[in-house]
Amino acid sequence: MAATNGKRKIRYAVVGLGWIAQETVLPAFAETDNSQLVALFSDDELKREELSQQYQAKAYAYEDYDNCLRSGEIDVVYIALPNHLHCDYTVRAANAGVHVLCEKPMAVTEQECEQMIRAAQNNGVKLMIAYRLHFDQANMQAVEIAQSGKIGDLRIFNSVFSQNVAEGNVRLEAISNGGGTVYDMGIYCINAARYLFRDEPYEVFAISASQDDQRFDDSDEMTSAILRFPGERVANFTSSFGAASASSLQLLGTKGNLQMDSPYSYMGELKHKITVNDEIEEKSYPAGNQFAAEIIYFSDCILNNQEPEPSGEEGLADVRIIRAIYQSAQTRQPVKLGEFQRRDRPSAKQVIQLPNIEAPELVRAADPTGKS
Question: Where is the GFO/IDH/MocA-like oxidoreductase domain (predicted)?
């Protein structure tokens, strides 16, 4: 294992060099002291050449993936590939004894998630799903507020997450291939409802709608879902690829409510507005470098032989709900969810607050709206 100043560093390969990897993941390694970027994977020769030089990391084509896994040169793969490739690349890494940090959604189906979990367990490697908000101060402080009783017994969760996605973006692939608004954006709302309620839904009902726009020939333009939780609590959200960029969250209790502006952002400020008995309390939090935080956390788990909290089971929990939501939207009927137990949930003890850094220039990549 590589070492700097006598300290062990976990060696990472980033697999997939699209927008999110280039804008946030690659530069994040410079902000860590226990992790090192040593390899890059892409099918784009220009990306390999330029980013390899920029980050002083070896660059590989995808056909070299298995050879690199068995080379002894890497400890972890950070998988930032399209959703339908997550399972295959995770299983191959696990079978080679390499740990996996996989972007969300974990996979397209529950069966793929379970295959990934088994591969990690059978090969004694760690699997973490990249839920960056589990290390974010504003979101984990919201958990503390929700559990403190300050706003009373929790009753309602409501959220909107939207953006206008450019034609041809991978997010617009068929839902059966992991495209669609709920896999990409709704998953944030689902996960937030689960960590704020500290529970799992047992029934969902959803509808999808699309304009007459060729962008949405294969995926939904927007989906609204209602999730029923134990204790007769309700969570509802709308995710959209065809509306102006916006994100908001509101948690209502019997005594008051908590509102969050930009709750799912990794840039700028995340804001709390707490209202109890007509008294308003407001607070802002810097988004911080959430990607460096999750890398630091996962490397610590490896170095200390601890299981990560946003585990494969956490990824599976969301994917099963996403699948039920799309089933409900298709059948226009409520869908019951089987029992699902989660012992480990994110909390403020996981917060790793780091200053954000300026995004680098991108190489043949653009954000979902089409901006370079």
Answer: 141-258
Catalytic annotation present for 104: yes
In this prediction, what percent of the chain has a pLDDT beyond 70?
98
CA dist., res. 198 & res. 263, Å (int) = 18
Per the annotation, the verdict on 188 as an active-site residue is yes
pTM over 0.90: yes
Distance CA(84)–CA(321), nearest Å, equals 17
* Residue from 47, 58, 104, 126 carrying the catalytic annotation: 104
CATH number of the domain enclosing 13: 3.40.50.720
Q: Which structural domain, as residue segments, surrounds residue 148?
A: 137-287+318-336
Q: How far apart are CA 204 and CA 365, in angstroms?
A: 36
Higher pLDDT: 287 or 227? It is 227
Q: What's the pLDDT tens digit per position in 29-40?
A: 999 999 999 999
Choose, from 60, 188, 264, 285, the residue flagged as catalytic: 188
Residue 283 lies in a domain: yes
Does position 4 have pLDDT exceeding 70, yes or no? no
Q: Nearest Cα to 166, choosing from 239, 79, 245?
A: 245
Residues 141 and 264 in one domain: yes
Reply yes or no on whether the pLDDT at 5 is more than 60: no
Count of domains observed in the chain:
2
DSSP structural state of residue 205:
E
Same domain for 159 and 283, yes or no, is: yes
Q: What is the CATH number of the domain that holds 276?
A: 3.30.360.10
